[in-house]
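Example for tutorial group B:
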C-alpha cells in the first residue's frame, strides 16, 4: 500500500496508523513492528527537519507479507543525503562527551535487515526491510 503524507511532524500519528493497518493485514509479529515504526519515524522526522522549506508530500510504500516488511520512502525536490553512509557514532563515550546527531541513523542500521538509498533528479528513495529473525 502507498500513501502520501504532508511534510509535518503532525503527520506522524497518521503514518503510524497507516503502517499499523498494513502490518495488521500482513499479520506481522509485534517484534518486527517496533523497529519498523522507529525507522519510519526517524527517517521521516529527518526529512521534515532538514528540508523545512520543501512543501512536497512524502510518499510511503509499505508492504507486509510472509513475516517481512518492506518500506520505501520517496521524497521529491531534495538534495542528496545518503542515510546509508557510515557515520562516526561512539556509543562508549559518556553522553556529555558525545557528538550531537547521527545516533538515530546509527540505530536504524542496527535494527533493520537492509537499508538502501538512491538519489537521482532531486528525488531520494530510501528502502528498508525488516523481518522475523
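The residue assignment follows.
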Amino acid at each position: 500500500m502507498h500513501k502520501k503524507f504532508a511534510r509535518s511532524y503532525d503527520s506522524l500519528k497518521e503514518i503510524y496508523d497507516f503502517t499499523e493497518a498494513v502490518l495488521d493485514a500482513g499479520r506481522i509479529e509485534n517484534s518486527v513492528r517496533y523497529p519498523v515504526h522507529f525507522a519510519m519515524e526517524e527517517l521521516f522526522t529527518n526529512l521534515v527537519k532538514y528540508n523545512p522549506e520543501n512543501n512536497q508530500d512524502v510518499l510511503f510504500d509499505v508492504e507486509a507479507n510472509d513475516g517481512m516488511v518492506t518500506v520505501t520512502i520517496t521524497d521529491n525536490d531534495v538534495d542528496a543525503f545518503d542515510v546509508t553512509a557510515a557515520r562516526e557514532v561512539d556509543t562508549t563515550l559518556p553522553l556529555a562527551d558525545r557528538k550531537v546527531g547521527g545516533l538515530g541513523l546509527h540505530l536504524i542500521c542496527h535494527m533493520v535487515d537492509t537499508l538502501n538509498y538512491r538519489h537521482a533528479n532531486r528525488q531520494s528513495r530510501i528502502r528498508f526491510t525488516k523481518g522475523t529473525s
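The chain has a mean pLDDT of 87. Compare this with the pattern of hydrophobic and polar residues in the output above.
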